[in-house]
C-alpha cells in the first residue's frame, strides 16, 4: 500500500481513467515528493489545469481514510501504482488506475498466461455453453481467465474456470463490496478463493454506465489474448477489443464464429475484417502461444483429458491431481523417476519437485527460470504423469 493516502487524494482530484497518475510516476521518485512540493511544484509539473490545482489545494490528504478503514475491516487489499505487486502489464497502458481494490489474491498476471473471455450479457445457449467450455479447458491448462463478472458470457466464463479448479479474475465496473448482481454473489465469493475480484472504484461505489467502458481497458490490459464469444454490432466487447489493440497492436484477438444473427454480428465481423482469428476449440489459443505450451499431438491429447469436476470447489481446494490420480492411491513415498527424455531445463524443474508439495514460486526460484516457463514445463511433466498439481499452486511427485 505504498503511499496509499496520497494516491487516493490524487484520485479524488483527477477522477478515474486518468493519464496523470502514471505521468507523476514518470516525473517524480514518489507521489509523496510531488505532494510535498506544494502548489508551486504542481504548476511546474505542467500536468494540471488551474481548476485541478485549486481542487488539490482544497482537498485534504486524509480524504480517503474512511475508505481505507472500510477496506481493512473487510479484508480487501489496496494496491497502488507504486507497489511492487502492481501488474506491469496494467502499468504499461496510458491510464492505469492509481489504486486497485482487491478481494482475494491477485495472481501473478505478468508471468502467467491470461485470456479474457468476453461477450454479451444476453448470450444464447450456444454462447453460454461455448464460454464455459473454453474457460474450463483453458483454465485446466493453466491459463488465468479474465472477465467482467456480468451475466451471460462473463459469468459462464468465470464458472467454467472455477469448475476446472483454475484461476480467474473478475474486473468489476463498480465497487467490490457493492451488491452488484445478487445472483452472482456466490460466484464472486468463490472467485476470491481461486483468484480475485478487483476494481479501481472504492468498495461501495455504485455501477455507472460510463464505468463499464472504463473497466474494459483493465480487462484488456491484464490479458495476453482476448476471446470474443458472442457480440452484437454495438457490444461492449468490441470496446474491449479496441482498447486491447490501442494498448498493444500485437495483442492476440480470437473470436468464435456464430450464425448469421444480429447477436453475433460483432464477433463475426471481427473475423471477417481479420481483426480476430477464428477459433473452434481451446487448443487454437494454446497453439498461438507455442513459447509457453508444448503443442505436439501428444500434448494436445493430454490437455484434452477431462477428469470432470461436478461442483465448484469449496474455498479453492484442488483435487490432488487434476489429471486423475489421487494422493490416497499411493502406497509408498514417491521418488524421482529416471530421465524420461527431458531437456536440461525440464530436468532442473523436475528435480525441484519433491515428494511433499512445493509451491511454484519456490520451484522458479530454485531453477532460476521465469514463472511462465516453469509453468509450461510443469504442465508437460503433468502430462507425462511425473508430477501432480495440488492445493495452492503447488506440485509434488507422483
Structure report:
The chain has 3 domains: 4-104, no CATH class; 109-287, 3-Layer(aba) Sandwich (Rossmann fold); 318-397, Arc Repressor Mutant, subunit A. Helix content is 42%, strand content 13%. The protein has helices at 4-14, 20-27, 31-36, 38-44, 50-58, 65-74, 88-91, 125-140, 153-163, 185-194, 211-221, 236-247, 265-272, 283-287, 297-304, 344-352, 360-367, 371-383, and strands at 77-80, 99-104, 114-119, 144-147, 168-171, 195-199, 225-230, 252-256, 277-279, 358-359, 387-390, 394-397. A 9-stranded mixed beta sheet has the order 1-2-6-5-4-3-7-8-9, with helices on both faces. Helix 16 crosses helix 17.
Properties at a glance:
three-stranded antiparallel beta sheet, Arc Repressor Mutant, subunit A, single chain, Rossmann fold, 42% helix, nine-stranded mixed beta sheet, alpha/beta, 3 domains, globular, 13% strand
What is the topology?
Blueprint: H1 4-14, H2 20-27, H3 31-36, H4 38-44, H5 50-58, H6 65-74, E1 77-80, H7 88-91, E2 99-104, E3 114-119, H8 125-140, E4 144-147, H9 153-163, E5 168-171, H10 185-194, E6 195-199, H11 211-221, E7 225-230, H12 236-247, E8 252-256, H13 265-272, E9 277-279, H14 283-287, H15 297-304, H16 344-352, E10 358-359, H17 360-367, H18 371-383, E11 387-390, E12 394-397
Parallel strand pairs: 3-4, 3-7, 4-5, 5-6, 7-8, 8-9
Antiparallel strand pairs: 1-2, 2-6, 10-12, 11-12
Amino acid at each position: 500500500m505504498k503511499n496509499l493516502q496520497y494516491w487516493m487524494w490524487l484520485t479524488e482530484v483527477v477522477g478515474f481513467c486518468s493519464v496523470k497518475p502514471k505521468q507523476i510516476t514518470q516525473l517524480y521518485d514518489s507521489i509523496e515528493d510531488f505532494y510535498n512540493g506544494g502548489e508551486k511544484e504542481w504548476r511546474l509539473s505542467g500536468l494540471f489545469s488551474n481548476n485541478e490545482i485549486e481542487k488539490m489545494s482544497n482537498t485534504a490528504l486524509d480524504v480517503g481514510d474512511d475508505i481505507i478503514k472500510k477496506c481493512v475491516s473487510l479484508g480487501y487489499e489496496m494496491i497502488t501504482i507504486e507497489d511492487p505487486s502492481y501488474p506491469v502489464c496494467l502499468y504499461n497502458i496510458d491510464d492505469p488506475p492509481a489504486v486497485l481494490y482487491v478481494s482475494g489474491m491477485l495472481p501473478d498476471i505478468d508471468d502467467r498466461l491470461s485470456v479474457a473471455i468476453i461477450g454479451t450479457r444476453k448470450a444464447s445457449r450456444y454462447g453460454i455453453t461455448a464460454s464455459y467450455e473454453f474457460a474450463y479447458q483453458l483454465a485446466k491448462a493453466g491459463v488465468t481467465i479474465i472477465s467482467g463478472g456480468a451475466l451471460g458470457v462473463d459469468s459462464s466464463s468465470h464458472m467454467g474456470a472455477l469448475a476446472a479448479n483454475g484461476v480467474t479474475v473478475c474486473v468489476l465496473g463498480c465497487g467490490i463490496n457493492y451488491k452488484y448482481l445478487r445472483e452472482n454473489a456466490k460466484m464472486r465469493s468463490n472467485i476470491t478463493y481461486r483468484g480475485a475480484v478487483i476494481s479501481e472504484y472504492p468498495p461501495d461505489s455504485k455501477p455507472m454506465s460510463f464505468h463499464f467502458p472504463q473497466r474494459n481497458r483493465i480487462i484488456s490490459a491484464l490479458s495476453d489474448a482476448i476471446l470474443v464469444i458472442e457480440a452484437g454490432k454495438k457490444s461492449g466487447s468490441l470496446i474491449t477489443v479496441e482498447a486491447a489493440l490501442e494498448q498493444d497492436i500485437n495483442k492476440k484477438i480470437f473470436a468464435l464464429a456464430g450464425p448469421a444473427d444480429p447477436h453475433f454480428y460483432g464477433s463475426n465481423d471481427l473475423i471477417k475484417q481479420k481483426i480476430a482469428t477464428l477459433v473452434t476449440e481451446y487448443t487454437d489459443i494454446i497453439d498461438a502461444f507455442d513459447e509457453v505450451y508444448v503443442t505436439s499431438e501428444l500434448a494436445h491429447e493430454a490437455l484434452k483429458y477431462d477428469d470432470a469436476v461436478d461442483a465448484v470447489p469449496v474455498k479453492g481446494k484442488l483435487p490432488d491431481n487434476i489429471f486423475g490420480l489421487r494422493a490416497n492411491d499411493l502406497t509408498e513415498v514417491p521418488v524421482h523417476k529416471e530421465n524420461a527424455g527431458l531437456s536440461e531445463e525440464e530436468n532442473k524443474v523436475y528435480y525441484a519437485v519433491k515428494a511433499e508439495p512445493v509451491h511454484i514460486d519456490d520451484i522458479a526460484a530454485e531453477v532460476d527460470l521465469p514463472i511462465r516457463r516453469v509453468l509450461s514445463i510443469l504442465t508437460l511433466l503433468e502430462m507425462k504423469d511425473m508430477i501432480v498439481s495440488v492445493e495452492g499452486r503447488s506440485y509434488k511427485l507422483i
